[in-house]
Every structure is written in structure tokens, then in C-alpha cells.
Specification:
eight-stranded antiparallel beta barrel; 329 residues; mainly beta; Porin; 4% helix; single chain
Length: 329
């Protein structure tokens, strides 16, 4: 009857007219000699219509003035080239200038390349241990819901983070029939658990950024759980009409009590408040339990000082869904 339980993203062209208007001819000076033919020019005087030396012809553009319709060459940007001909590199951060400026001042969700960010906060996870996983080690059992939570500390740089957690998990389970797969029908026992665990874990997460505020996380978690608490197991027998249905089995009060030697035998002392010993004492109750998980989720960072997460994953303890809330240091 004995068995072991195993548990993340001019100006308009200035058109210069440049047209120099011709000045009108000066009126005849007073004292001009009578008899001079109208329009006769004095020796050396320029003929009407002849432009004075150096005067611009009508319609001629002044030197340096742009012709109408000619585009003005736009001056080169001040930072396009330095005196030695080298070109100044563009800013490294991506995004509009305001967001980059905010990030440098520490007010934005935008994370700058090469900069390390630190966060501290809390996590909560619901772990679902499905019955099919329990049946890998024995018959019977039930789906167990484990509530867990604790503090966490994250270090993040260039879209990758380490998230360290120290958290508590409660593996409580009500009375459940269970036996080893290799044991016979008469080896059923009623098992209940008040076991708990303290986990020390680290999540290694990469991010696919949709915007500075939203990203998809994916990665893995590893760690170790330190188990403690009671694992109670008592021999069971079928009450009248329940043979072959372990869900209806009841606890034996003691050896041959009730008088059913096929079920309530004296080959072990699994009666009353019997507590399964730990590995250290030769029993099957674990002392440590590995945490190995593949996980994904969503990350929301509305500001530098706050991050929220939705975590989803599957690992050695089953499926889990959880949330995290962290403060940016």
C-alpha cells in the first residue's frame, strides 16, 4: 500500500527682381547758348539714349543680383560640415527631438541606447498545476491553483533586462486520492498538502518595441524553490458502493479500522496526522524544486518612473499568468 508521492521606435525660394530702373535724362542747364539745335549734344556729351559709362542698361541686373526666377542657393546647414570638411554625425537616439530631450532630462518613457535603467517593484503570479502533469508521476490528484508573489528588481539596457525575484508560493491542496502508477488498486491514499515555497529566480527578457511605451517581452526564467510545510497522507478505503471510484474513498481510522484488511493494513503507519518526511529524512517530500520556464508578455511604460507587465508562461510548475508593477530608479 505504501508508495511515494512526486511531486519597443526654406524657407520658400526668395525671388529677387534684380531689375535696375534707368534714370531720366537731366534737363538742359540754364545759360545754354541760343541757336543750339534742340537735341544737339555738346561735344563730349553722351548721345540721348546712350548710357553713361558704368551705368547699367535698363533691365540689366546689378552685379551679384539674382535673375528673376533664379533660385537662391540655400546656405549649407551650420552643422553639416566643420572647418576640416568632416561631417557631424546625427544624434544617436531615434524619435522626435522633444522625446529625446525629455529622455535625456529623465521625464520620458523613451530609453536611450547604451544607458542602463533600474527598477524595483512587486509581482504576482497565479500558477496552475494541471492534473495531467500530476498524472506523469501517479494516479489520481487534481488541478491545483497556486498563488504567489513577492518583490523584484530589474536591470535593463538596450531592450534586454534581468529581472530578479524573491517570491512566496503556496502549494496548498485539499484531500485528494493518490497512488503511485505502479501500485495496485488497494494502495490508494488520501493526500493533502500545506506545502509552501520561497523562490529565488531570474527572468531574462528581450523586448520587441512597438513604441517607447509598449513592447512585447519574451525570454526564459530560471531559479530554485526552497520547500517547507506538511504533506499529509493517510490510507484510504472504498465506502459502500464506491469501489473503483477513488474520489469517494474515505480515510482509514487506523490499521484494520474499519475492519478491511485489504485496504487499511498494518504494513505502514500512514494514519491520523502522518506527515511525509523530507528527502533529508528518507521520505519523498522535496526540499528544493527547480523553476524553469519559457515566458512572454506585454510591457507598458508610460513614463520613466513606472513600468507595468503582463506575464504568461509555462514551466516545471505548470502554466502561469501574472502581473508586475515597477518603479524606475
Amino acid at each position: 500500500m505504501a508508495h511515494r508521492v512526486r511531486a519597443g521606435w526654406i524657407l520658400s525660394l526668395l525671388l529677387l527682381p534684380g531689375v535696375a530702373w534707368a534714370q531720366p535724362a537731366d534737363p538742359p542747364e540754364a545759360g545754354a547758348e541760343p541757336g543750339a539745335e534742340p537735341g544737339a549734344a555738346e561735344p563730349g556729351a553722351a548721345e540721348p539714349g546712350a548710357a553713361e559709362p558704368g551705368a547699367a542698361e535698363p533691365g540689366a541686373a546689378e552685379p551679384g543680383a539674382a535673375e528673376p526666377g533664379a533660385a537662391v542657393e540655400e546656405p549649407a546647414p551650420a552643422d553639416a560640415a566643420t572647418g576640416d570638411g568632416s561631417v557631424a554625425p546625427p544624434p544617436v537616439p531615434q524619435g522626435d527631438d522633444a522625446a529625446v530631450a525629455d529622455a535625456r532630462m529623465g521625464d520620458s518613457a523613451l530609453e536611450l541606447p547604451g544607458k542602463t535603467y533600474y527598477f524595483v517593484g512587486l509581482r504576482y503570479r497565479t500558477i496552475i498545476v494541471p492534473k495531467f502533469m500530476i498524472n506523469l508521476f501517479g494516479d489520481g490528484g487534481r488541478t491545483v491553483v497556486v498563488h504567489s508573489g513577492g518583490p523584484e528588481f530589474a536591470i535593463r539596457k538596450d531592450g534586454f533586462e534581468y529581472n530578479f525575484g524573491l517570491w512566496f508560493a503556496n502549494y496548498a491542496m485539499d484531500d485528494t486520492p493518490f497512488k503511485s502508477t505502479s501500485d495496485g488498486e488497494k494502495a490508494w491514499e488520501i493526500v493533502n498538502s500545506k506545502m509552501k515555497a520561497i523562490y529565488v529566480t531570474s527572468d531574462f527578457l528581450w523586448s520587441q518595441e512597438f513604441s517607447p511605451a509598449f513592447s512585447l517581452n519574451y525570454g526564459a526564467g530560471v531559479g530554485l524553490g526552497f520547500m517547507f510545510g506538511d504533506l499529509n497522507r493517510v490510507q484510504a478505503y472504498p465506502r459502500a458502493g464506491s469501489a473503483g471510484n477513488p474520489e469517494d474513498y474515505e480515510r482509514c481510522a487506523g490499521p484494520n479500522d474499519p475492519a478491511n484488511p485489504e485496504f487499511c493494513g498494518d504494513d505502514n503507519d500512514h494514519y491520523g496526522d502522518y506527515n511525509e518526511p523530507s528527502w533529508a529524512d528518507g521520505g519523498s517530500k522535496p526540499i528544493v524544486f527547480p523553476w524553469l520556464a519559457l515566458q512572454t508578455g506585454l510591457r507598458f511604460k508610460p513614463a520613466k518612473s513606472f513600468v507595468a507587465r503582463l506575464d504568461l508562461g509555462f514551466g516545471t510548475s505548470g502554466f502561469f499568468v501574472g502581473v508586475g508593477a515597477d518603479y524606475g530608479l
